[in-house]
Amino acid sequence: MDFDWPTYFECAACDAEIPADAVQYDDLGYPECPECGARTGPLARLEAVETIERGLAD
Fold first, then answer.
1. Per-residue pLDDT tens over the stretch 31-43
2. Domain interval for residue 17
3. Number of separate domains in the chain
4. Model pTM?
């Protein structure tokens, strides 16, 4: 009997656990969370800091 284990994407920003086939990828091939829009990859930390700084400036 064959059994396929489902694969999930776990978002580090919002802790959502989403089936991997529902996740979209950016132009560089890094996943983007469908729940909160957070991206992963080398620039993800910079984007998070810029978002926080913009929120503080408002």
1. 888 988 888 777 6
2. 8-57
3. 1
4. 0.58
